[in-house]
Amino acid sequence: MDEGMREKIALFRYGLIAPLLNGQVDRAAYLAEVSAKKHDVPCYGEKMYAAKTILEWLLFYRRKGFDGLKPGTRSDRGKSRTMSPDQQDHVLALRKQHAEMPVTVFYDYLVAKGEILPGRVSYSTIHRFLNLHGLLSGEATQGTERKRFAHDKVNMLWQTDMSEGPRLRIDGKLVRTHLIAFIDDCSRLVPFAQFVPTEKFDGLRIVMKEALIRRGIPKLLYTDNGKIFRSDILQLACAGLGIQLLHTRAYDPQSKGKIERMFLTCKTRFYTLLQAEPASSIEELNERFWKWLEEDYHRRPHASLEGKMPLEVYLSQIEQVRTVSDLAMLDTLFLRRAKRTVKHDATFSLENRLYEVPETFAGQKVEVRYDENDVHVYVEGKPAAQAKIVRFADNAHVKRERPALSFKALQESGGAADV
């Protein structure tokens, strides 16, 4: 089982214990409900878990954090213990021919044809094997139930979304912008928001890190099904911080009405200011927006807060805010991830750049995690080495290691005659 699958399993386990961590549910009732259900588990297929197992996961998370939820590694990982390589290839070929079959039917088909022996290869083995190769079909995901929110504590729940921002004319060209924002459900305070030039995850990473640093850590994060909000990086970061990530149903903006209302307020009260005096750069746009946010939005009485200001409500409960204690840890949570094969000269390419690593990684497939500043090699989920950009001009002047005796020295010692 590779590290990516171990993380998916850990995310599944975190999803089950998150309501217990956040105190959202009655403990006994929740455990009874969850333990009575079948769960579609990454790698393992459908399984049921006893309440004792779920409580063990809760204990592991509290002791070791997200890593405590990962399954242990096998000494023979990457190899099937029940099917030979030839048998695996044959099963994959048959699955591609019968992709429309439910997995249960396909398993019975393999048994009936004599391709596998039920006493040796179980249904869960086939389900796990097909899942690893992306050959499960006909499995629909359940939509998240829509709920009305009325939290009375700050940082219990944040909503986040992205909205199209004003277009700027820079050097004679129209440039699109996008506003990424977070809003606290209780106080209506905006932990952080920023205009970014693209709809990629990097923008969300920057905005969310700033929101966490400035206003603390929420228990729940509610967003839609946009690509960046479904990313593995966001799910792993939330799990690492103890945040339960919730998604709305598709095409259901009303379910996150507070963030939508905040965007409308921006359009009516801030964007109109730009019409009279347009911003000339995205940096200027953000500087003016942040000033408006702090001086106008946060300090204006809000109708749904009984006339109180968002900042006033937030500060009234400041002692309840859970803050980020380790900024370095926060940086590692949001690193982008990729798999690379290190060449025999101990180099690999990443986003059109060539990097070098210690020679011990030559010829190996490794996981790299990176941001705009650094690139690191990770082994078993832990940092193992830092990759450096290859600079060919510098390498030309690197002093190379030489043998203990040079060829000239061998000649002088008479050793060359023996060669």
Largest sheet: 6 strands, antiparallel
Main sheet strand line-up? 10-13-14-15-12-11
Low-confidence stretches: 75-79, 138-149, 400-410
Secondary structure category: alpha+beta
N→C terminal distance: 50 Å
Question: How large is the count of helical segments?
Answer: 14
Number of strands: 15
Can you identify the CATH class of the largest domain?
A: Alpha Beta
Radius of gyration over alpha carbons?
27 Å
Helix and strand string, N-terminal first?
Answer: HHEEHHHHEEEEEHEHEHHHHEEEEEEHH
Q: What's the name of the CATH homologous superfamily of the largest domain?
A: Ribonuclease H-like superfamily/Ribonuclease H
Q: Give the rounded overall mean pLDDT.
A: 84
Oligomer: single chain
Helix content: 25-40%
Percent of residues in β-strands: 15-25%
Which second-level CATH architecture of the largest domain applies?
Answer: 2-Layer Sandwich
The outline comes out as globular
Can you tell me the number of structural domains?
Answer: 4
CATH fold group of the largest domain:
Nucleotidyltransferase, domain 5
Task: Note the main attributes of this structure.
Nucleotidyltransferase, domain 5; 5-stranded mixed sheet; 17% strand; globular
Describe the structure.
The protein has 419 residues and is of the alpha+beta class. The chain has 4 domains: 67 residues, no CATH class; 48 residues; 171 residues, 2-Layer Sandwich (Nucleotidyltransferase, domain 5); 85 residues, no CATH class. It is built from 14 helices and 15 strands. The strands form 4 sheets. It has a 6-stranded antiparallel sheet with strand order 10-13-14-15-12-11, with no helix packed on it. It has a 5-stranded mixed sheet with strand order 7-6-3-8-9, with helices on both faces. The protein starts with a helix and ends in a 7-residue tail after the last helix.
